Amino acid sequence: MPDPAPRVISLPARYYTSHEHYERELDWFFRRMWVHVGREKDLSRRGDFKVVSPAGESLIIVREDEERVGAFSNVCRHRGTRLCAVDSGTFGSTIQCPYHAWTYALDGTLSAAPGMDRVEGFQREDYPLSRARLATWDGHMFIHMGDSPGSLATQLANRDALFRDWGMNELVVGNRIVYDVAANWKLIIHNYSECLHCPGVHPALQKLSHYLSGENEPAEPGVLGGRMRLRDGIGTLSMDGRLKRACLPGLEPEECRFVYFYAFLPNLLLSLHPDYVMTHTLWPRSVGRTEIVCEWLFHPRETAQDDFNPDDAVAFWDLTNRQDWHVCEEMQIGLGSRGYRPGPYSHREELLVEFDRLILAAERMAADDPHGREPYVPRHVTGPGNVGDNDR
Amino acid sequence: MPDPAPRVISLPARYYTSHEHYERELDWFFRRMWVHVGREKDLSRRGDFKVVSPAGESLIIVREDEERVGAFSNVCRHRGTRLCAVDSGTFGSTIQCPYHAWTYALDGTLSAAPGMDRVEGFQREDYPLSRARLATWDGHMFIHMGDSPGSLATQLANRDALFRDWGMNELVVGNRIVYDVAANWKLIIHNYSECLHCPGVHPALQKLSHYLSGENEPAEPGVLGGRMRLRDGIGTLSMDGRLKRACLPGLEPEECRFVYFYAFLPNLLLSLHPDYVMTHTLWPRSVGRTEIVCEWLFHPRETAQDDFNPDDAVAFWDLTNRQDWHVCEEMQIGLGSRGYRPGPYSHREELLVEFDRLILAAERMAADDPHGREPYVPRHVTGPGNVGDNDR
Amino acid sequence: MPDPAPRVISLPARYYTSHEHYERELDWFFRRMWVHVGREKDLSRRGDFKVVSPAGESLIIVREDEERVGAFSNVCRHRGTRLCAVDSGTFGSTIQCPYHAWTYALDGTLSAAPGMDRVEGFQREDYPLSRARLATWDGHMFIHMGDSPGSLATQLANRDALFRDWGMNELVVGNRIVYDVAANWKLIIHNYSECLHCPGVHPALQKLSHYLSGENEPAEPGVLGGRMRLRDGIGTLSMDGRLKRACLPGLEPEECRFVYFYAFLPNLLLSLHPDYVMTHTLWPRSVGRTEIVCEWLFHPRETAQDDFNPDDAVAFWDLTNRQDWHVCEEMQIGLGSRGYRPGPYSHREELLVEFDRLILAAERMAADDPHGREPYVPRHVTGPGNVGDNDR
Fold this sequence. Notes:
The structure is a homotrimer.
Chain A: H1 14-17, H2 19-30, E1 35-39, E2 48-52, E3 59-63, E4 69-73, E5 88-90, E6 94-96, E7 103-105, E8 110-112, E9 131-137, E10 140-144, H3 152-155, E11 172-181, H4 185-192, H5 198-201, H6 203-208, E12 215-216, E13 223-229, E14 258-264, E15 268-272, E16 277-286, E17 289-298, H7 300-303, H8 311-335, H9 350-368
Antiparallel strand pairs in A: 1-10, 2-3, 2-5, 3-4, 4-9, 6-7, 7-8, 9-10, 11-17, 12-13, 13-14, 14-15, 15-16, 16-17
Helix pairs in contact in A: 2-9, 4-8
């Protein structure tokens, strides 16, 4: 008989419904941490770009040359016009403002500024595009908008090596679906971090992997994860559970019997299957709304085949995603009712308890440093059993 | 020649346009008074339920057994998910949360909580659904969300006996229309409480009952009403004024010559005709928006007939309702203009003056008791002629 | 080689994105200045009216008699109902409230108030419609909602005589288009006040008038303008540049070689062409939204002709307008990004610098007079080069 789990209750409603709290969380988690922005392989040619919008910013992620991808503020240095109005595409050799034609090279330097020649002391080199830091891990790109970031590796809690066998660096996007979910971003992470809901919410998943087969790793600050075992005779997570393509080349046989689920705060959910990898990238849009980009990554040997077809994996997860978003939305509605009172977590929701502790720790740290000058680094926190309380 | 009426002016615009004022009114009137939620006869079988949403709450009204109808918070005690996403229906023997399958009996007790068995000190009896008080009057159900309510009879100013002859307890809903009106909830009550507007706004009504035939009863706190005489040859309020069904069995002949209009604060408008009763239930949704549920109640002997047809009454009032909502919406727009200045009430708007005084009295009482611990009971108030002033 | 222009940077983002700042600007510019409301010629017959909505007010502009056009609050003095729900039309001899039939003469006096006869001390003469001041200049009507306006001529900086040759008093509206633009009202004025953007944004305009042909007049407080020369062989601004109707009769040949562009603060943009005049009337609707009424005015000798056709002028400017609104909207989006930093104006944006100085001067004056009792009169301001700063 295992030890009893401590009784811990969920957070007060304001953490999920208050606009002010939401704005603070953007500061704590999205402006002071490395934020996932997508796959470097998507930007293969010089000038390839995508636009992402973290925490009230708009950033252009662009391949500057063979070596480098850069992240620039999508705002002209002249009078502030948005430079790029589309989500993705390929620039020629420059980025030009649609209003007065200020023109920037792909490395952000200002190369032309019509009509500024007579302005006293004006020098083009003083007005490059604002650049944000960009780093990559196994092909995943992250940006940082703060002044003094720690290393990406530190934020990943040195779990960056953990998935080397999957060779993520090589993988390419085989499909992408964008979801608009009427729920707070933290509820998405909650939902991802436990499978107690799986028997009722995901009958199809339950046939492929038993919800009690999950083993969580000890949580690291900023990294919450574990793995679930595929049932006997099941090859991967797909509509029929059969493996229709080769396992990823670096995997051990034992690794092919599990699916690994890891949440990397603040916004990357990484799901590793024997034959493909899935990422969810979370973009909080308001306290009660989150945009979620779901991408399915495959080995290039697979995508290069004439009859490559990712539908078995995509259809399974699209169904599962929608089931999850539905209960997250119902929870968001319930939390908005004055009748909500924080309730007790089950011992199968231990990662949620860890996550709530990080939220509270960030809040305490912000209270100690109201000007937000210290970079936020999630830390191990211990504390009383009850992380929430009954007030709102 | 009657005595002159004192000159009283209407309330400042903020009472109808300020979000903060609206939120306070929800406290004064909807969280500290008995609130009408509909007809008990609608929930005849065990498990029959409806969901209502007073003042930011969501409540399930459910028949627990033959004897009892209960009101429960529509929020799971586990993590706050909304339990029930539909407006009405019939539960089996339990209410189950869609997320982690916490399951409640119809009396609100928690009967199953998967995965909680190892949580220290967890006992199911500690987590029943939150219950609100529910009381009925002649078949009308009312709920109370506060801690120390007075009796429903007190709130009804002992007018509960006044309409015994109509036998409302027996009546059943023959039709229901839900309106979404872009006007403050108080303007709906204003509109209901005077017929000075009838000649211009309701030409069809004017043919059935002369607007000057109205006689108001002395207002009681929380109860504003009176009656209007049907014109000679007119049997009821309907498209052609003819009585197409029997008068309600308990009525005296004299009572069949009038229509009785009573506003029971905060949200029930009760209109009693010789052959049917109509209720409007008001649900404030924002400072400038009110949802209104209009129900037509008939004697079960009528609804049981094969050729039962409520259209004469429904069509007449649907027309009249829409005329009323239109002028209420035009008034809401006007009050939102900076050009509005409070103006003088006519002596035919005396109930509006009483109603405004209740609003002001509630405001004063709230100022005296900022923590809102005292139950609000509308009281007779006397005061200066001018209830409003010119500031905003 | 001309003198260098001082380096001046644009305003912080809050001037374009903060709701609070927007509300203050409505006070400074729309409630304390004369505001353009349209053409008097549009209201030629007794009872002709239009409804305009400046700064949270709703006003009826109505021809009272042959001599006089009046501006009245569109709100009944009884209980505040909106009097008139349509944009324009013709009243009979009265204005009647749709709710309780209070009835006003066209001069705003209350002529009937049903049911008020018994109200103590009530006198109809105490409740006329609230009147705002109205003045006209060359057929353009302006209203003023404040208590102590200066003269309209003063606000026009005595530029009222400047355009006498165009005989605007006689002109009539030949076409009207209303635009809803997702940009702050000041960005529309910025856009109108420089042609540095013309080569890239308006290729069709560039073929008719070279963007460097512009000559700005020294700015007067509240009046920013200049003129641009038509290219050789070009007769007017139209799709093909050909003059299809007579020049306005009072013009000198030299005046026919230019187009004059003048912004009269707060909300009239006046564009004078050899053969027609165009006005843009700006109606701020929120901090990020402006409704713009564009009217094309022609000589009555032209509009009286059977084959009168304004399409050449309308199509040209509708295209040019839409190009302008697009870049204004892109600028509004960019200013809403946290990545925006004020940038340097070119020496071809000198009128924008003047305009920004007026904004800052109004802000300073409001700080000195927080109760806003002094009428705001734009004044010449000198100051440091940098009108903006880097904070938000």
